[in-house]
Amino acid sequence: MACNSCANQKPANDPRWRRVLWIALIVNATMFAIELVVGATAESRALQADALDFFGDSASYAISLVVAGMALRWRARAAFAKGATLTVLGAWVLVTAGWAALAGASPQAVPMGVIGVMALIANGGVAALLYRYRQGDANMRSVWICSRNDAIGNVAVVLAAGGVFGTGTMWPDLIVATILAVLGLSGGAQIMRQARQELRADRASDGSIASHHGAIAASE
Questions:
Q1: Which of 9, 52, 30, 29 is nearest to 187 (CA)?
Q2: What residue stretches are annotated with the Cation efflux protein transmembrane domain (predicted)?
């Protein structure tokens, strides 16, 4: 699932790194839209849950590119918004998966498999682009690990499609969807918790600076 460490580190100044990050952002945002639409039309909860992953990574890359150089409070607020959105989307996938289980609707295996393979190729390509930065700073390494882990997660979606095709039931799809949705909920909660800690630390820092300035003014 999405990696929260990507959102809280400053990006490198290397223009090649930033160019790769832009490519990763575009690829992930595109696949998020594709998986969300196809997941809804094919009634695949696993694809919808995997779309969560693409959304989370897109938000992480965007935060790294746009707000990572700003003050801590703005980075923390952006991370909190991303975490809250991931949590809402994760809950939505769980609810729809539960509804599908009650309704007994089976997803379409072929669209699941095709889009799952596309997602695997997309994440594999991004991981390959980021491979040269795997030994860089924490931000570079975390982004590469995120993409590598996402590619592994896409294998689960493809296997779920094979399970749906082979068994003719919805359960392989729902099992994978539930796992990915729970990971999304967990990741969103972790991101929001860390963002709140950073906001508290930032306010405490501002208070300390204000007290220090007040003490200096009083001594003068």
A1: 52
A2: 21-199
Rounded Cα distance between 156 and 57, Å, is: 18
Closest by alpha carbon to 1, among 161, 172, 176, 196? 176
- The rounded distance, in Å, linking the Cα atoms of 113 and 162 is 7
- What's the token pair of residue 116? 């799952």
Q: What is the pTM of this model?
A: 0.68
What is the predicted pLDDT for the residue at 10? Answer: 45
Report how far Cα 198 is from the mean position of its chain's Cα atoms. 20
Residue 163 has pLDDT above 80, yes or no: yes
Amino acid 78 reads A
Which positions ≥6 away from 112 have C-beta within 8 Å?
42, 44, 46, 47, 157, 160, 161, 164, 173
For the record, the structure tokens of 12 come out as 């490198």
Any idea what DSSP says for residue 7?
G
Closest Cα to residue 111, out of 34, 40, 42?
A: 42
Q: Can you give the residue ranges of every domain in the chain? A: 4-219
pLDDT tens-digit readout, 54-84: 887 887 778 777 765 667 677 778 778 877 8
Would you state the structure tokens that stand for residue 31, as one six-digit string?
């696949």
